[in-house]
Amino acid sequence: MMGDMGFLTSLLNFAKEQINDETVELLQPYFAAPDFNYESARKASGNVAGLCNWAAAMCKYHVVAKVVEPKIAALRAAESELKVATKEKNAAEERMAIVQARLDEMQAQFDVAMQQKQLLEDDAAACQKKMDSAAALLHALAGEETRWTLQSKEFDAQIKRLTGDCAVASAFVSYLGPFNKEFRELLMSRDFYQDCITLNIPVTQNIEVAKFLVDDSEVGEWVLQGLPTDELSVQNGIMVTRASRYPVLVDPQGQGRLWIMNREEANQLKVTQLNDKMFRNHLEDCLAFGKPLLVENIEEELDPVLDPVLERRLVKKGKSWVLQLAEKEVDFTDSFKLFCTTRLPNPHFTPELCAKVTVVDFTVTMAGACGQA
Asked: Which of 27, 234, 240, 295 is the residue whose CA sits 20 to 30 A from 356?
């Protein structure tokens, strides 16, 4: 048997799983024999020694297999169950992923809807707050409706009279400077106002030119600069600051001169006289650099060199303006101002000079002195 060529193959392919307890039990007496071991069998034959070990190993395999086989079967059953459970788990996870994606989408839509809801609530609260404030304001101002209605009507009437008021105010500034307060009022009421009525021009009766042409804040600034507070002085201040022609102040007491010096001090006012040897230089510097110039103590006539300045004979040269003073061209700056004052109580200026300048009577009267006091 051992000489058979296929014996080794049969041993390798032996169906060891078919070994049973009965076969193992029958082999136990042989295994119990004292000479049934590898060393004893080797003495007889090396092949027999190997066959003894193989037989013992097969019996040992059967004993171990009795314990392991149920576990292997249980393992295989568990693995089969695991595959089924895993497959079910994967299917469940796929369904859960789909549901989770839908849930995330719905959650995002919910968040957007909640944000819009919050914005609407905030807008509604702000709108309600504004409505409450508006209602409170309307309630508080309910009594002002009558006054506002009257003021609106008065404002409409004032707009209609604006043309006549502007005409009267312009005539006042242009023509009434040389006269005292009483004659100014006479001309305003008798001539200017009546002319507007005759021509059917709406105009305010007994218009207060001072309030029409200047506000209280500017008058207060003039007072701080030294202008007296009486109505005549305020009118004179309006003529000096609003007239388009350069002013000549009839100022025996020097009040107008003091006011102008204080008013223009910050603008680097230059004070000079016609008989000053530097008069021409002062005039040219002030024209070129736009500084105010005060010519004091004039007589009844002015130096002819001032005629181009008084008549504003300006010539455009490049981007600037120039004046021809005698035979010399002098640059002209728009910020230039010219003031002239005389100490003569009753000067007789020529009609030509009066047409070139704005004569303003700053003489202090008894009524004006009482008003200043």
From this structure: 234
Each residue's pLDDT expressed in tens, for the chain with a length of 373 residues: 555 556 667 666 666 666 777 776 677 776 666 666 666 666 666 566 667 777 777 787 777 877 777 888 888 889 999 999 999 999 999 999 999 999 999 999 999 999 999 999 999 999 999 999 998 888 887 777 778 888 888 888 888 889 998 999 999 998 888 988 888 888 888 888 888 888 898 988 888 888 889 999 999 999 999 998 888 899 999 999 999 999 999 999 999 999 999 999 999 999 999 999 999 999 999 999 999 999 999 998 998 899 999 999 999 988 889 988 878 899 999 999 999 999 998 899 999 999 999 999 998 876 556 655 5
CA distances from 264 to 203, 226, 297, 303, 350 (A): 35, 12, 18, 23, 28
DSSP classification of residue 297:
S
Q: Which tokens sit at 203?
A: 């105009």
Q: Which residue has the tokens 């609003």?
A: 242
| 3-state SS class at 204 | coil
Whether 31 and 56 have beta carbons less than 8 Å apart is answered as yes
Strands (E) in 208-336, as ranges, are: 247-250, 270-272, 292-295, 314-317, 320-325, 328-332
Q: List the structure tokens of 210.
A: 């001072």
Question: Would residue 193 be called left, alpha or beta, if left means φ above 0 and alpha means ψ between -120 and 50 degrees?
Answer: alpha
| CA atoms within 13 A of residue 36's CA, in its CB half-sphere | 12
Decide if 368 contacts 180 (C-beta within 8 A): no
Relative to beta strand 358-361, strand 337-342 is unpaired
**Two tokens at 330?**
């002098």
d(CA 149, CA 145): 6
Residue 353 and residue 177: Cα distance in Å, rounded?
Answer: 14
Contact (CB, 8 A) for 246 and 283? no
Question: How does DSSP classify residue 190?
Answer: I
Nearest alpha carbon to residue 289 among 336, 245, 325, 243? 336
- CB count within 10 Å of CB 237 equals 26
Grouping H, G, I as helix, E, B as strand and the rest as coil, residue 328 is strand
